Every structure is written in C-alpha cells, then in structure tokens.
C-alpha cells in the first residue's frame, strides 16, 4: 500500500476544503486527481455566498463579504470554529439583546391607551424579527412619539368588528400552520378584534419573515458546524490511513481497525447531515405548499381584509420557501456524495 493520499481521501478532503482540492465527482479519475489545483471547492464558497444573500443577521453578512474579498484563506478562517462566522454571530446576539432590553423598557413604561402609537410600535418590534427591532430603536420610536403628540387630542381609534370568516381562518393558522412564528401570531390574534386587525395589518407578514429567517439561521449554523466537524474527521481518517500504510507487520491489525473506524466516523457524520438536509427539504416543501394554499384562498376570499396584497405576499413567501427547498436538496446531494465516498474508503481500507 502506498503512503500517498488515496483518491477517495483526496476527493473527500477536496469537497470540504482541506488538503489537495479536486471535485468529488472526478475523484475516481487518477489523472484528474494528479492534476488537481489548490483552489477552494465551490461547495464551501457557495455556502459563504449564500450567507451574504440570505442571512438575516447584518453582522454575519458583513463578515461573510469580508471573507469572500479575502479569498480562499479568508473563507477558511471565516468558517473556523472561532473564526469570523462565530464572532459575527456573537456580535449579533449582543446587539439583539440590547434592542430587546430597550423595547421591553418601552413596553413597561407605556400603555396602549396613554401612548398608542409608541406602544403599538414597541409591541410590533417585540414580536418582530431583528430588522423590526433595529427600525424601532433607531427610527420607529421617534416617529411613534411624534405620532402620539399629533394625535393626543383625538378620540381613541375604534377597531372595526372583524368577520367570523376571518376569525375561523386565523384559528386554522393557529392550529395547523407549519411555521412556529405564524402559529404564535395567529394564536395572539384570536384574543380580540384589535389583535385580529393587527394580525392582518402587520402581524402575519412579520411572523412569516420570522419563520423564514429562523429557518435560514438554523440551517446555516448547522451546516457550518457539520462542515467543520467532517473536515476534522477527514484529516483524522487520512492520518490513520497513512499510519496503516507505514505500520509494522505486528501492528497492521490495530492500524487497520483504527483506519476503518476513522472512515466510519466520516460516514456516520455524512449520513447524519444527509438526513438532516432531507428533513429540512421536507419542511421547506411543506411551507411552500402552505403558502400556495394561502394564495389560493386569498384569491377567492370576500371579507374586508386586503386579500389582494395578502395573495401577492403569499406568492412571494412561497417562492422563497421553494428556494429553501432547492438549497436543501443541493446540500443533501453533496452529503450523499461524501457518504458514498467515505463508505468506499472504509471498505477499501478494511480489505488491506
């Protein structure tokens, strides 16, 4: 057995950005492996590009752009456990906590009756996504104060009675919508006419964005953790295989067992990641189908809500979830390829 890297090892390390780089799809071609360059594979770079396009955390987006501008080394440093990605997430959490503290203080010191515009804006921000909180603290709070000052001598706004059909529809969302944010917002809307009116004005839209952003944050963070872990396991498997190649006859059995177990760990993680992305694909497909159903319902609804805008919003949100499904499918395919290569490497090492 040679001490040079096996083609399977080269392929697996290439896909995750470690060692000699060669696309996994061509790893079986010896000539391709020998002529491989050291360019960072598209998989890791595509992940960072996606962060710049879809991650809702401004700090992460900025750090991802910086990593891309710094080339392959910048991307690898960005995705390290204590690298730019982790630090950007920590900065975001600190900023979000500051905003939450401010908003909570506003809600404690105002009421819907005494300062309706401020209270409404703060309540909206408290249940909104990060961009809603940022807007309130930096712009919306002052605007709401000015609105209350303009309206201080007016009679309290009357909320129109909501149609029973709207109540029934929102109740169905509270019980069966696939998004946790939408279910929570719909449950709150069931408290009364004012809450139901707020749901159709802004609560539903905010909750929909919350579900999308929560999904993107969760899958992005999980994929980064998987990629780092599997890169570590691949390097360990390569070292174990090298040790097997150089082992004395008396130590071959032990070295073989170590190498087989190392590749088995790679297979195990790749299988877990594949199943994880398959589950995310199913969740995204369910969301897309749900929003298509909302769009269909809105086109024929006859109550006083702005169903035209709701239909358009539902179509846009459904398209976003279709994109999430496609991304999950692509990631599942990448991990499937890694799984197959790792299993082949395990079998090959076991046969030595």
From TrEMBL:
It comes from the Bacteria. Keywords: Signal. Residues 1-27 form the signal peptide. This is Uncharacterized protein. It comes from Amycolatopsis umgeniensis. The lineage of its organism: Bacteria, Bacillati, Actinomycetota, Actinomycetes, Pseudonocardiales.
